[in-house]
Design brief:
Blueprint lengths: L1 H11 L4 H9 L5 H5 L6 H11 L2 H18 L1 H13 L3 H9 L11 H8 L12 H17 L1 H10 L6 H18 L1
Helix pairs in contact: 1-2, 1-4, 4-5, 5-6, 5-7, 6-7, 6-8, 7-8, 7-9, 9-10, 9-11, 10-11
């Protein structure tokens, strides 16, 4: 509880962006702090993502705190991510789709990834948002390291609903491999 309160206070009382970065850094500052990361920090992560509302803070929170919460408390975090992916907050959607980047294959949940991506493609208002299109591409590109044919198949199946930017980002690694091996 003290960690959560301190993070929120630092973040909300910040006069400079770097003070917000310090709040985001707290859970990973030391081994003692990392041990305090539990499901009670999920609402804190959500609040910081909503209030931070910009790619630098959101990407940091999704790749660190949110990822640790997902690994440690999947039964609480997965439903939240699916809700965020369908909600009205651009940054929560982005965080939901990006929180698994860098995870090893045994920890990665492909169903969750696509559950978090699919609500943001097509003709909806979020499909036109740069940070969503770029985030989808980044999440798919990260997935392509472990499952290139899966990502290629997804991009083919949903080609009409994906922005060119998304496809370019998603296939970047696959295209480089093809050129190198071809």
């Amino acid at each position: 509880a003290e960690l959560a309160e301190t993070m929120l206070a630092l973040f909300r009382e910040a006069r400079f962006r770097e003070e917000r970065y310090a709040a985001v850094e707290l859970p990973r500052l030391s081994a003692a702090h990392r041990k305090l990361v539990d499901a009670s920090l999920l609402p804190v992560a959500e609040a910081l993502i909503r209030e931070g509302a910009w790619w630098d803070l959101v990407d940091d929170l999704s790749g660190e705190l949110l990822q640790q919460l997902l690994l440690r408390h999947p039964s609480e975090v997965k439903p939240a991510l699916r809700r965020w992916a369908q909600g009205d907050d651009l940054w929560l959607r982005r965080a939901a789709m990006l929180c698994q980047r860098g995870l090893k294959a045994e920890a990665f949940d492909a169903v969750l990834l696509y559950d978090c991506i699919l609500p943001s493609i097509g003709t909806g208002s979020f499909a036109r948002e740069f940070f969503i299109r770029k985030g989808i591409g980044w999440a798919l590109r990260e997935r392509s390291y472990a499952a290139p044919s899966e990502v290629q198949a997804f991009c083919t199946e949903y080609a009409a609903q994906l922005a060119p930017l998304t496809v370019r980002e998603a296939l970047k690694v696959i295209d480089k491999r093809s050129k190198r091996d071809g």
